[in-house]
Structures are given as structure tokens and as C-alpha cells.
Amino acid sequence: MTATRTAAALGAANPMKATRVPWQLKFLALTFIWGSSFLLMKIGLRSLAPLQISGLRILSGAAVLMLLLTASGGRLPRERRLWAHLMVTGFFLGSLPFSLFALGEERISSALAGIGNSITPIATVLFSLLLLRGDKIGGGKIAGVLIGFVGVLVILQPWQAHGRPDLLGFGMTLVAGMSYGVGWTYTRRFLGRADFGGLTLPAAQMLTSAAQMLVALAIWWLTQRARLSLDAPWSLHANTRGGSVLWPLLAVLALGVVGTGIAMSFQYDVVRAAGPTVGASVTYLIPVVSVALGVLLLGERLQWPQFAGAAIVLAAAVLIGRSHRR
User: Fold this and answer.
1) What does the alpha-carbon distance between residue 177 and residue 149 come to, in Å, rounded to a whole number?
2) pLDDT of residue 15
3) Digit-coded pLDDT (tens) for 276-295
């Protein structure tokens, strides 16, 4: 879910040596891995609370990245200044958006949550204006931003009193998508030239997210344990579908191990091998996969304004991408 953000951050980074697996296969894998993440979160919500989902996702993803980093002979950064910046990016690229997507899916469908993720390229342009003073924002990008906001309005259907999506739930997914824009714009400004190759930065970033989620989970449990009857922060509630709690747990573990840990390593490889423009284009396919899986596997339904608004938002994202390439 973060291809556009990584592309912006690593556009000036040194290229990494070619990997054995062609980047085209990794690109295709990312499309389905990130597109299915919204389906996995919806399944996880049957037995896990939203913060439990984001916490387990980040902790398992961090474990995978650390194993891959160690196996490749890499090491974590040592400079305190870098870790201070990584605490910021870990919040905006991990802790905040992962938690908001899970919270939002308590109120809206996984298909609509995937559509909310497509706001990221639009948000990236906006925050680039604030954080990257030397960046030139052309007319095409500005037009893309305006068109994107029109698409969001169409999805929200403010002219309807009934039948429109839950405003709070969809709003959470929009803030989550915008959080990626903040995080990767910040990364480009303060860490854009600190890419050591390999998995050093993604592993370090996920470690800071994991530390933040441990604190968040502890606070959540201490304040909610009586109301939710939870013996520990990792206690699960009964499956809302009446089945075993194993499947929701496995869905979230897959989300962390594959959708966060392995996908993050694929993401950096694609951007370094094919360039930021190609790496960013996976963002346009993620909502298509999330909507298809939500409709086919969960029986979710979207109204025509949501399809029309999603098409407008994606068109805006493509326009922004084309403007960046030129």
C-alpha cells in the first residue's frame, strides 16, 4: 500500500544490485498482496480488535524484516539522528495508517477501504508543497489534486441523506492514506540520501513502529480491559461468524508476514530496479484488487457513486503520476 510513498522517498537513492527474482514478478505480487490486505483485515476483525490487528501486523512484519536483514548481512543504522527521523516515519508509515485502516473497516467494507487508500498520491502532492520547498508542483499535479477531491466528494455523496458510506469510517481510511503521503514526503526530505541499500531502512522503520504499537496496545488494554473483559492485550474475542478464532488470527499473521514484511522488501527492490515512476504505478491497481476481492469473497456491494468516485480518484492519481514522469 505504499509504493507511491517509497518511490518519492527513494527517487534519489543509490540503486541496489539486481536481485535474482525479476522485478516484474515482484511488482505483480505486490499488486495482489497489498490489494488483499483489506480483505485480511476484515477477516481479522472477526476475532481481533483493530489495535490488535495493527499491532500483530507490525510486530510480525518487523520480525520478518529483521530476519531478512540478518540473513543478507545487513545492519541497522547507528546514528541517533536517523533514529529520531525514523520514529516519525514509523508513526506516519506504520502505526497510524495501519491502525486507522483497521478501525475504519469496523464501519465500512474492505472494498471501500481500498478505495480510500488511493488518496495517497494526491496527499503526497499536497504535503510536498509544505515540506519540499524546492519541489516544483506543475499544473498537471495541481489539476490531479483538484480532480481527486471531486472524486472523494462523489464517493461521500453529500447530497444523499441515506445510502451514503459511513463518514467516520471512510474518513479514517482517507486520513490513513494521507498519512502515507506525510510519511514519505518527510522521508524524502530527511532520509532520502540515507538509503543504505538492502533492508536497512525498512527494517529500522518497522522496528520503530513496533515499539510505538507496544505502547499503544498497553494503553488500550489498561483502559479497555474491564469493558471488553480482556485478560491480556493479546486476548481474542469469539469469532463473530461463529467459527474458530484461528482463521482471523492466521489472516492477520499473513497480513504481517507477507503483506508487511516480505512486501516491504519487494517494494524497495522494485523501486530500485525499475525506478520510482514504475514503482508508484502499483498504487493504481490496489483498489481494483481490493474491490474485486471484497465483492467476490465477502459479498460486499458498492453503489454506483462509489464506483464513479473511485474511478475519478484513480484518474487523478494517474494524472499526477504522468506529470511526475514528464
Assistant:
1) 13
2) 40
3) 556 667 778 888 999 999 99
Residue 58, CA distances (Å) to 30, 63, 95, 121 in order: 17, 9, 8, 23
**Distance between CA 311 and CA 297 in Å, rounded?**
22
299 contacts: CB under 8 Å, gap ≥ 6: none
Provide mean pLDDT across the span 16-24: 67
pLDDT at 89 over 60: yes
Residue type, 274: A
In this structure, the number of other CB atoms found within 10 A of the CB of residue 323 comes to: 17
Round to whole Å and give the CA distance between 52 and 214. 10
Q: CA–CA separation, 67 vs 69, rounded Å?
A: 5
Here the contacts of 76-80 (C-beta below 8 Å, separation 24 or greater) are 76/200, 76/203, 76/204, 76/207, 77/194, 77/196, 77/200, 77/201, 77/204
> Beta-strand (E) ranges in 242-321?
none
Q: What does the CA dihedral 237, 241, 247, 251 come to, rounded to 10 degrees?
A: -90
- More confidently predicted of 321 and 195: 321
**H or E element that contains 238:** none
- How many structural domains does the chain have? 1
Distance in Å from the first CA to the final CA of the chain? 24
What is the sign of the dihedral through the CA atoms of 80, 81, 83 and 84? Answer: positive
Cell of 78: 547507528
Nearest to 26 by CA among 6, 55, 44: 6
Give the C-alpha separation, 204 to 87, whole Å. 9
Q: Which domain holds residue 321?
A: 3-325
Which of 98-107, 134-143, 223-232, 267-276 shows the highest mean pLDDT? 98-107
Lowest mean pLDDT among 27-31, 57-61, 65-69, 227-231: 227-231
Return the biggest CA–CA distance within the chain: 58
CB within 8 Å of 52: residues ≥ 6 apart: 217, 233, 234, 236, 252
Report the alpha-carbon angle 128-132-133, nearest 5: 115
**SS percent in the chain: helix, strand, coil, step 5:** 75, 0, 25
